[in-house]
Amino acid sequence: IKGFIELMSPDGTARKIDFTDQYTVIEPMATVAPLLMDVLYAGINNEISISVPGVATQDVSASASGGTLTPKGGGIWVARPTGAVGTKFTIAVSARVNGIPRTMANKEFRIRDLPRPDAFIDYTDSKGAARVFKQGALSRTVLLNAGGIKASIDDGVLNIPFRVLSFTTMTVDAMGNAMPEVSSGSRFTERQLEQIRRQTRGQSFFITNIKVKGPDGVERDTAPMQIRLN
Length: 230
Description:
By secondary structure, the chain is mostly beta strands. It is 7% helix and 54% strand. The strands form four sheets. Strands 11, 12, 13, 14, 15, 16, 17, 18 and 19 form a nine-stranded mixed sheet that branches. A four-stranded antiparallel sheet has the order 3-5-8-7, with no helix packed on it. The protein has a four-stranded mixed sheet with strand order 4-10-9-6, with no helix packed on it. The longest helix is centred in the last third of the chain and has 9 residues, at 190-198. The radius of gyration is 30 Å and the shape is elongated.
């Protein structure tokens, strides 16, 4: 756009001031992006970024079907699905543009179960670095000092801790008899610690029947762990 402004100068003559400006006209749009993945997970808080280009955050509103949607601030919303796994979670976004409410977008997400977590043992190596052990060889000292096991989903996208409810350690004696010992929590019992101390270097034992519970309140089994003492 171009134009001019005409003003009266102090000496009574007319003065013209030219101006030029430009702007871009775009279709109404909204951006709805999950911060975890392209799906929403049942039973947990899923953070989602919702924004409308050119519209202030406070003028953007959203609602959902299939669960709850709560503003957290800074354009971040928390979606918590309550629908069944496999159903849709739909977000409707509106914004106030020039004082008028307008519908900007509707977006659907699939509701999925959390993936199965992995059991692990965390410890500190000789250089003081934090390490995570899942399978393979481990020293007896490290294992005894660890005191127990943990579980989580840590696949590079999700990072969700789980509570270990119980697990069984299993060794095999010289006669080939299986010797199970059960813990009713995440820590090794005294009998399990003694079981580990009796193992010789190169022997393997197993941690099985690992029961865990996630933030969604669902109990799950994790894959067993095989440990070879070195």
